[in-house]
Design goal:
10 strands, globular, alpha+beta, two-stranded parallel sheet, 15 helices
Amino acid sequence: MQALARELGFSQIGVAGVDLSTAEPGLMQWLEKGFHGEMTYMAAHGMRRARPAELVPGTVSVITARMDYLPRATPDDWQHVEFARLDRPQEAIVSMYARGRDYHKVLRTRLQKLAEGIAAEIGPFGHRAFTDSAPVLEAELASRSGQGWRGKHTLVLDREAGSMFFLGEIYVDLALPPSEPVTAHCGSCSACIDICPTQAIVAPHRLDARRCISYLTIEHAGPIPPELRPLMANRIYGCDDCQLACPWNKFARRSALPDFDPREGLTGRTLAELFAWSEEEFLSRTEGSPIRRIGHERWLRNIAVALGNALRGGDASAREALQSRLQHPSALVREHVAWALQQAPGSAGPAD
């Protein structure tokens, strides 16, 4: 199974049992505090997230898989390279995982091939594959199956691979021996908590998604809270800061797959360039990309905020780009454009 997994591009697979009852109190508390924000599907599924046998009746074990996603040509000083983008406020920052092909498609296809390969060896069995696509406690299952430990930023960390990887699962009706979990190695380090621009990591292992830039730019559909907009800087889709600051990511591995190589047009481009994309151009350029799912309206909303932050920092060219969308049909876009224009030094409008 391990050899087949490596052939398919997975760096490691493991096995977890289906009794996640000890994770239920923490999940319930997180939901009760409203930390899931507008991700109502998390509350709607309730404890089914922690009960694999309820989600997929007949499930006895869960095969977990890990796939590295750093592009093949990533330089050794990649963390420094990525942080440096914040020093160029006119440049649009897209989270590293989203610069290539949609990971949902890549993992789902390969998880299915893994299941088919196992069936070819042992015979047919019941299974269902997931990758961030159902009420699954991915990080919990991954940590229980030896893929790593839960970092203070809530992501899974591995001593030999950091956290720059995707997770996937195959729920199976086979009784498989579980993998051994690994011990945690964060120690007293708080780099991820300290670096978070919006202080979304409210305590070790506790994330308030409502303050997280990844949530705000991807999952959140409405207006971005004005007090958080200046903190987003030039990040327009996702945020990697907690991972960039993590010392363990000096061991992050490059992907063997070309799927995660950055697409032309999503890296090193100016905010003004991306803000000028028509809806047709947006759909064309993001075809097969995870970015496409937020739609053109939210794309413009996010970039308007970044342009406002650039304008506040003295980038006069941002004004012209923003003015081009002042009459946009979407009230959501118009509101964020108006806010952004008020960020100009000397503007009569509020700066925050």
